[in-house]
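Margin note: ligand = fe (iii) ion.
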Amino acid sequence: MVSHGRERPESDMALRVRAIEELLTEKGVVDPTGIDRLVELYETRVGPRNGAKVVARAWSDPGYKARLLENGTVAIAELGVSGVQGENMVVVENTGAVHNVVVCTLCSCYPWPVLGLPPVWYKSPPYRSRVVREPRAVLEEMGCPVSDDMEVRVWDSSAEIRYMVLPRRPEGADGASEDELAGMVTRDGMIGVAAV
Ligand code: FE
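Resulting structure:
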């Protein structure tokens, strides 16, 4: 049987975390809305910043981009980014001909070091099953239609491999600095469910 990341104990862990959270809320130690906000912050802002840095470097430096596509793990570590759930990274490039999108059909494997915490929809059974069967329909519903002349590739996280999409560089960003470029990169763009 293939081990699928380190997620198997998640339900146990999730239960324990919830029990602790409920206890702390009951005792008035924590405010649950504050926790929700913190989780959201990590999902959308803090977590994906490392990925955005990687993307911006790839957009600015063709040599780095080549290394990134050749060996994602090593090139990402060049920027000081590595860790659990990012030990075997594969970066796939969106082009004018190919659109890539990432899923974990078995559970919710996700490249934590570059993207932070997975969004709820990423872990949801409808996304996981449908994006494989009808990727174009799912992408369209998520606001990321892909034209018929483009190929859609769906990457299913398997065993230890974690995928990240290198989005297309936005047009009209020619004079932008690497920091400015990083600011344009979104989490959803690196999962492949949004254009940047
Ligand atoms: Fe998984």
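The first strand starts at residue 89 and ends at 93.
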